[in-house]
Amino acid sequence: MPRVPVTTSRREQILTEAARLFARHGFHGVSIDGIGAAVGVSGPALYRHFPSKEGLLAEMLVGISEHLLAGGQERAAEHTDPVDLLDALIAFHTDFALRQPELITVQDRDLANLPDDARRRVRGLQRAYVEIWVGALVRAGLAGSDEAARVAAHAAFGLMNSTPRSTTHTGADVAAGILTTMTRAALHAHPV
Amino acid sequence: MPRVPVTTSRREQILTEAARLFARHGFHGVSIDGIGAAVGVSGPALYRHFPSKEGLLAEMLVGISEHLLAGGQERAAEHTDPVDLLDALIAFHTDFALRQPELITVQDRDLANLPDDARRRVRGLQRAYVEIWVGALVRAGLAGSDEAARVAAHAAFGLMNSTPRSTTHTGADVAAGILTTMTRAALHAHPV
DNA sequence: AGGCGACGTGAACGGTCGCTAACGTGAATG
DNA sequence: CATTCACGTTAGCGACCGTTCACGTCGCCT
């Protein structure tokens, strides 16, 4: 039988398709056979690449969290002015949310389905990412306390992550402009 | 055996506990036996009150959508000025999101697990609710097109619905103020 | 008193799911 | 050329899950 040349690695192919399926049906709503079928192999072949279904989810969510944190740290290193940093963070996060809506969806929907150690790891990475935002907000004088800044940061994430609910019908660049403007205004309006 | 006096109706008790469990573990992550155990009965007793597990979810989501739409229509009837209407809508939605975080979570996470007809019904109700916001935004001159207004409305929902992610550590009234202010600013900042 | 309906139980069913086992194969390695 | 290894296959296992069934038990109505 002719072997189909695999352009991207099988692992990444599986991760991509699994993300799409998890986003649409939820972790427990997708079967191993379903994921296999989506990449053209069948069922148990996945166990050549991942130790378990939960392990697959873990790699997906850890990857997302690491990517976000790395991007945040990069921006933090580039900008000393907190307002500039906030703008860079907004641009970075908005871009990610618009480019990878499935990952965004899975990240905050299926975190509870992770095994304990992986969940702790993801939560730690997420917390570090949030703290970058919190620090910028406080230093910019846009939040009266760390607590308030945390609420504001989560609110900003919710705003930018609304992408999966509305992007279906709208151009990505148009949405990017709207979300960026709204997020910036929301954060700057927050009273001290 | 002594019969335990049931204060609220069994149906509502089941709906409440099921919402909590669905919010935490997802629809497919909760078993019929688990829901039963949460209300003190076991497993199949639920079928005395609901036709199926999907039927239970359907009643939950339809109830939420109807409540939101009714509240939106009520505000729309009370306010002729679109900016006043927006403020009333923000107050209404924020209050709901803060008071019922589990329902908010289930609503936009498990819609995909509804049977087709119920899903269509919920989507229709949601769309009608969104259209109230869209109409107010356009009439207020805060959106250049219906499309832009829809993106803005979904973004506002994402902001206000961020509650379940951050309220755990913050007082509800404090969070309400922050979310209200941020949402108002976000919507008013959106350029024409 | 008697029957009925609401509500609950435990047992059992068919189906699906995650995962393992046993096996096959083609390409690189020595 | 023989071996190994990466990567797939199908068959089957144990567990769980949604649902149904047969049955029991109250409280209420006539």
Automatic annotation (TrEMBL), chains A, B:
DNA-binding region per UniProt: 31-50
One Pfam family in the UniProt entry: TetR_N
Residue stretches making up the HTH tetR-type domain: 8-68
Keyword Aminoacyl-tRNA synthetase listed: no
Presence of keyword Transcription: yes
Biological processes annotated in GO: negative regulation of DNA-templated transcription
InterPro entries per record: DNA-bd_HTH_TetR-type_CS, Homeodomain-like_sf, HTH-type_TetR-like_transc_reg, HTH_TetR, KstR2_TetR_C, Tet_transcr_reg_TetR-rel_C_sf
One function term, GO molecular function aspect: transcription cis-regulatory region binding
Keyword terms: DNA-binding, Transcription, Transcription regulation
Classification via SUPFAM superfamilies: Homeodomain-like (SSF46689), Tetracyclin repressor-like, C-terminal domain (SSF48498)
The protein's name: TetR family transcriptional regulator
